[in-house]
């Protein structure tokens, strides 16, 4: 008796997160059912047009917005930005460079520097 492998699937929210897109902006058919690992790999290797458009123009989920602005997700929340933003809105924020953005970027830089320092210190002990 041979057993068939069932394909590994994930919820659309998980797949959207792995693809770096905002779930609510994806097509209905993507949100309607489970996404198989093979489907996800295929979308990553050769993204359909809707996925390319979402990655290029948004709206982007918080983790992508934070990365594009070089701040933390917590920094976005402190600034009151809880909704997804489009690429155009992100570019406008970068151009305006408000005080909160400068402050959060400085905080993020300090966190990265401290993490690098700790990593270096840990390597010296080994």
Account of the protein in words:
The chain is mainly alpha-helical. It has eight helices and two strands. The chain has a two-stranded antiparallel sheet with strand order 1-2. The longest helix is centred in the C-terminal third of the chain and has 27 residues, at 99-125. The model has no long low-confidence stretch (mean pLDDT 90).
What's the SSE blueprint?
Elements: E1 9-10, H1 12-19, H2 28-32, E2 35-36, H3 37-45, H4 49-57, H5 62-69, H6 73-78, H7 87-96, H8 99-125
Antiparallel strand pairs: 1-2
Keywords summarizing the entry:
single chain; 126 residues; mainly alpha; two-stranded antiparallel sheet; 8 helices; 65% helix; flat
């Amino acid at each position: 008796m041979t057993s068939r492998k069932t394909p590994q699937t994930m919820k659309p929210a998980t797949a959207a997160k792995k693809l770096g897109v905002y779930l609510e902006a994806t097509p209905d058919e993507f949100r309607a059912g489970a996404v198989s690992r093979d489907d996800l790999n295929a979308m990553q290797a050769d993204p359909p047009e809707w996925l390319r458009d979402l990655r290029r123009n948004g709206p982007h989920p918080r983790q992508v917005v934070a990365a594009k602005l070089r701040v933390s997700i917590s920094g976005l929340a402190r600034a009151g930005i809880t909704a997804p933003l489009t690429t155009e809105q992100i570019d406008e924020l970068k151009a305006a460079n408000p005080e909160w953005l400068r402050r959060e970027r400085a905080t993020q830089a300090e966190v990265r520097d401290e993490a690098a320092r700790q990593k270096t210190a840990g390597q010296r002990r080994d």
